[in-house]
């Protein structure tokens, strides 16, 4: 059941360059990288539905991207540095920065209660 919409903050970002890429310029605008975003909540908190219910959560952007904005393959991780704290294995998002927000709609009714 949908109980609430969760908004999380990006607290860290890691850029993984494609080993076949010849460019050293990260801002060139090519899709030769994968992004890892770390957010301030994870599977040991509001996203416990991933562990207990095998839920698949996908983010919605807080701000609408520009029509020509490049979307990059990325994964989204919780704050613990635990390999199990993966929220999204793969999705496509623009190049976001620490401090930006991601929205997760239709979060389950018991995610907050089970995390406390």
From TrEMBL:
Single annotated GO MF: ornithine decarboxylase activity
Name of protein: ornithine decarboxylase
SUPFAM superfamilies xrefs: Alanine racemase C-terminal domain-like
Enzyme class: lyase
UniProt keyword list: Decarboxylase, Lyase
Gene: odc
Domain Orn/DAP/Arg decarboxylase 2 C-terminal, residue spans: 2-108
InterPro entries linked to this entry: Ala_racemase/Decarboxylase_C, De-COase2_C, Orn_de-COase
GO cellular component: cytoplasm
Reaction(s) the record says it catalyses: L-ornithine + H(+) = putrescine + CO2
Gene3D superfamilies per UniProt: Lyase, Ornithine Decarboxylase, Chain A, domain 1
Keyword Lyase listed: yes
């Amino acid at each position: 059941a949908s109980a609430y919409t969760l908004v999380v903050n990006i607290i860290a970002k890691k850029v993984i360059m494609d080993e076949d890429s010849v460019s050293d310029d990260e801002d060139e605008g090519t899709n030769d990288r994968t992004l890892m975003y770390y957010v301030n909540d994870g599977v040991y908190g509001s996203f416990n539905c991933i562990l207990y219910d095998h839920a698949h959560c996908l983010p919605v952007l807080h701000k609408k991207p520009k029509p020509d904005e490049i979307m990059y393959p990325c994964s989204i991780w919780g704050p613990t540095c635990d390999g199990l704290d993966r929220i999204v294995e793969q999705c496509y998002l623009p190049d976001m920065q620490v401090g930006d927000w991601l929205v997760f709609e239709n979060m389950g009714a018991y995610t907050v209660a089970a995390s406390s």
